[in-house]
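Regression test case RT-17, inverse folding.

Input:
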């Protein structure tokens, strides 16, 4: 196991790793845009988390947090939805990337790591933080927003854990990370 400094530092940035990060960022934009179902103004079902998990596995917590923050801003400006900009959602994206990076980089892939990481992102970011942002932004009662999110997140939790684990198992066999570290 690597020490804390190495985990937060991420891989050495080479031409290869920068190119891979750029491709994954572009993929995240495309998947986030076209593989998303909008349920309401602030409830969406998306497969973009899959690419975030891949970035976390290859690049670690700081890179994933930064990339998530940048992509959140890019999505807002490139694909406007009519909703006002709120920095809280960018903070949620950053925290989600940080959590995934802490659990998936440079660790051995395990179902337990997938369960803990996805559960933490679901509870801390998707439920609590995003419910708070919606409450502050739209003046909806917090517990109303929280309960509306609870059903969606409960339904998505197990599929997200399974998909994250399977994607990590597949990409760990590709041995791309050996070219990054």
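Golden output:
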């Amino acid at each position: 196991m690597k020490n804390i400094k190495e985990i937060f530092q991420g891989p050495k940035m080479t031409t290869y790793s920068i190119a891979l990060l750029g491709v994954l960022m572009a993929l995240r934009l495309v998947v986030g845009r076209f593989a998303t179902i909008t349920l309401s103004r602030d409830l969406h079902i998306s497969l973009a988390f899959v690419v975030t998990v891949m970035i976390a596995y290859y690049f670690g917590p700081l890179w994933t947090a930064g990339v998530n923050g940048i992509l959140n801003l890019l999505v807002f400006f490139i694909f406007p939805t009519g909703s006002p900009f709120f920095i809280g959602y960018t903070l949620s994206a950053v925290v989600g990337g940080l959590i995934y990076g802490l659990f998936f980089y440079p660790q051995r892939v395990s179902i337990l790591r997938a369960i803990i990481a996805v559960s933490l992102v679901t509870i801390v970011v998707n439920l609590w933080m995003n419910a708070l942002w919606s409450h502050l932004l739209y003046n909806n009662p917090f517990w109303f927003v929280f309960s509306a999110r609870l059903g969606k997140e409960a339904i998505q939790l197990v599929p997200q854990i399974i998909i994250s684990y399977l994607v990590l198992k597949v990409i760990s066999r590709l041995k791309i990370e050996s070219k990054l570290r």
